[in-house]
Amino acid sequence: MMAILQALRIPGLALRGPAAERSQRLAGVLSCVVALVLIVFLALPLSAILGKAVTDQQGAFVGLAQFVEIAGGSHFWHAIRNSLAVSCTTAVIVLPLAYAFASALTRTAMPGKTLFRGLALIPLLAPSLLPGIALVYLFGNQGVLKSWFPDGSIYGFWGIVIAEVFFTFPHALMILITALSVADARLYEAANALGAGRLRQFWTVTLPAVRYGLISAALVVFTLVIVDFGAPKVIGGQYNVLAVEAYKQVIGQQNFPKGAVIGLLLLLPAVLSFVVDVVLQKRQRALLTARAQPLVPARQRWVDLLSVACCALIAAGLLVILGTAVAAAFIKLWPYNLAPTLAHFDFDNMDGGGWLAFWNSLKLSGATAVLGTATVFTGAYLAEKTAAAPVARQLVKLLAVLPMAVPGLVLGLGYIFFFNDPQNPLHFLYCTLGILVLCSVAHFYTTAHLTAVTALKQLDGEFEAVAASLKVPFWVTAWRVTLPVCLPAVLDVARYFFVSAMTTVSAVIFLYTPDTVLASVAVLNMDDAGDTAAAAGMATLIVLTSAGVCLLFGLLSHGVRRRTQAWRAR
Question: Is 421 left (phi over 0), alpha (psi -120 to 50) or beta?
Answer without folding.
Answer: beta
